[in-house]
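Researcher: Structure for this, please.
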Amino acid sequence: MHLLATFVLAAVAVADPLSVSGSVTDSQGNSIPGARVFLEPGLALRLIEGELSADGSYYFGGLRPGLVGVVALAEGRMIGGASVEVGVDEPSTGVAIRLGAAQSIAGKVTDPRGRAIQNAQLSGILLQGENPVGLPLRKLSGFGFEVPTTDESGEFRFDQVPDGTLALKFTHPEFAQETVRDIPSGSTDIRATMDPGVLVQGAVRARGSQLPVARAALLVAGPGRESSTAIAVTDTRGQFAIKLKPGRYACQASSAQYRSPGWESMNITGRQIVQEVTLYVAGSGSVHGRVMDARSGEPIANVRLALEAFENTVDMTSSGPRGGYSLLASEGPNVLRVVEAAGYRTDGVMSLKIEVKQGQSSEVPNIWLAPIPPFKLQVVDAAGAGVAGAVVTLLQPSQYRWRKTDGKGMLGLDVVNLPSSGRVVGMAEHPTENLGAVFALDVTQGGPGRVQLFPLSSVRGSVHAANGKPVPGITVGGAFQEDDASEPILLWRTLSRNNGSFAWEHVVPHLALVCVASDSETGYANSIPFNLEPGSARDVGRIVLESGEKADSMYGERTDWKRLSHVAGPTLPEGFQGPALLMFAGPNEAAAVVDALETASTILANDSVAMVAVMTDGARVDTATIPVVVGLAPGAARTYLVNDTGAIVLESSGMPPFSVIRRLAGGAAFE
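Model: Predicted structure, token format:
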């Protein structure tokens, strides 16, 4: 439970202006005559053109902390850019943009009936990948740049595209904005369908006075995608209009003096031709301070912080190399919270209530965090002897990577992010036998933890809709709750098969469990609770979902995964027929998946199973010790076990338990 301390802080002078500097060159590092460079200080703000020196270097000063974009272009070359997180401690230097040979893209834009749309603009490009880069083409039009626009046949072409996987944003005054994702550079058959959408109009008003706010920029974001963000600007009467497709959005308004206290939800139903919306903004200021190590007295970098007002998140940031941070704030009471601090305890950290005045920056007292102490765990067998080589998986906090005990069954656990409960929960498994157990360690208690392994059990059941029909492709997990206040913890996950059935043959005994089935339509439903004896089996019967929105189950289907394009790591031996673990990863989890599979490959020490990371959605990995390929998941799952005939024998999510992979390596059949 958080304590709330109130600080009414005096306004202080804003810190020295921050800057971004770097260079714009060709692929060989040479300056480019006629090249231009621009800064995008925010999605709702106009571009600022900078100056390039003779050697191609540039400098932008007077910035506020936060994410900015740098965009560069030159005639006959690709348009390029970089996303830069401006901190508070030191300038961002060495931001290099290389403008190499350009690629081309082309395609056609139509309405839902297939009719060509003329004068649709390719208003923006997002270069997808681990570090996405937005290229705001429409904003460049004010600097003489010709925005790609469709002709009378609805066709467009753009010849300055960077190499990579792209998301393309199309705009037209009579249609809702449309985004087409996962487009490879060089594609010339792109198709975009623009929806007439719903006219959303309304006003932006100041809280309290209710006065209209002119020239306020309205950001409307789709479901978590930067490439889906649409922008409108209020007129002199504080009114705006924008066309949107039906769906759920988050919106935010800001001007020179006012801003929304965070993101507000907006549901465009499509039941009306015109939908009215009113957004309220408040005066704005900022807060700044430092995060420090309570033991060493040194600053802590990369601590994630959030500022809240009116029950919304106003701004988020991370501390810089010297522990400094700065956050935008709403006028009046704000609450500062520590969101994430890798390697440090955040339980019991006070939330700071800060009174902010419009147009001023307030200094926050230092935030002191204590390091998380290392844990020690011993895994033992029925006789109390340490189990050498036992495999341990952390469930809370959830981590992909396996860990292995030493010759005495001991393991040191350095936890990066401690749960709010102060307890670490994990699963231990025997390296060669079908034994396992769940453990919980408390950070406040000294001495090593100890967990005894027992024979694993099995569970089966089925998922049905309310009308009695079996439902395939539903995620089913084995869950337990450590205490009444904690969130349920998933031990494993799989998908229901085409007949609605599911099975898991590696269930930890002596633990109160339920099987949880969930879909995107109705939420979830639980099986009857069960607590298995070692080595036993249980049929939990039917789990009934209200709607039973089915997906696809690929269980038993064959997949020719060996034909996927290899991009990094070693290649498989020619003629390899062994089984495989395939984990599909987007940009956000690519590095973690590759790391987990590399560790798993070392621990398993069995070349008969291929550990393969499959990159999706523009994810990229340059080096690896396991095969890395590119492809799309065959079904709803993100993890697949494939036997030596190419048949899928298990659909899951995340890293499966060690006992499952050991069974695959041993050639045992899966039910």
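Researcher: Any notable elements?
Model: Residues 590-604 form the longest helix (15 residues). The chain is about 5% helix and 50% strand.
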